[in-house]
Hints:
The chain is mainly beta. The protein contains two helices and 22 strands. Strand 13 and strand 14 form a beta hairpin. 16% of the residues are buried.
Amino acid sequence: xxxxxxxxxxxxxxxxxxxxxxxxxxxxxxxxxxxxxxxxxxxxxxxxxxxxxxxxxxxxxxxxxxxxxxxxxxxxxxxxxxxxxxxxxxxxxxxxxxxxxxxxxxxxxxxxxxxxxxxxxxxxxxxxxxxxxxxxxxxxxxxxxxxxxxxxxxxxxxxxxxxxxxxxxxxxxxxxxxxxxxxxxxxxxxxxxxxxxxxxxxxxxxxxxxxxxxxxxxxxxxxxxxxxxxxxxxxxxxxxxxxxxxxxxxxxxxxxxxxxxxxxxxxxxxxxxxxxxxxxxxxxxxxxxxxxxxxxxxxxxxxxxxxxxxxxxxxxxxxxxxxxxxxxxxxxxxxx
Length: 336
């Protein structure tokens, strides 16, 4: 006959904490839409379908004068900055006189698929953390983290505080340090999908007197193309695409930011969900550039491929959210 398991102190009911933790993601609001009724000679007012009718605005305009707060956590995209506020709240009742909460401290870290990073909390100094929290008060901190990887992310938040017992003479009769930890999981997904292709162009021959009176050097040239696809849920404005070349190469943009003879400025392209943008760069070996030349020759001899550089992309969301993405080293096609 199986014997019942002996009870331990850990199996007893856990005493509730005097401090609670609330986590709220900080994100921008979205535009609010309204659907006005068509103007017609009916008894129904054309303002009947409006959430916030007003005489000072155009009631036939589809955008309402109010903004909509995010109803849920939303999507987290690689390249954006994840921000949230951490609030430690004193939950002692107003008539509670036997306990006092002091020395409240919040520590946060982000667990990514490849590392665990400690997070800096803002503001750094806070008097409530040192002097204690009064009943009903909160200690609030803000954390920010640049999302650079796809996959599961876990925000781990630890709260510690000192719970002091007050005796009948209103003096401290004892105390203890209490702590608890909470985990918040979310998935970072890509906003822009990047596909690249390089093509080798005819080399440029230039004079090189170090090889003799008729010596010539061949400077390598490549065309680098990239397709940017918006795989997110909302439209984005591509503010900048820049190729950071690796020596001894230099890069010239062939896109909308190319200098024009008529001095006209082109507007940055807008990508709706599933739209694709094609960008291109001319990559040329710099004449007389010795930096990186030896490494380039070794790479071509060993692998038949050259490292051209890294592609940096900057975009903005519909409400101005910033996004930034940098690819790994882009290589040329293998020479045959």
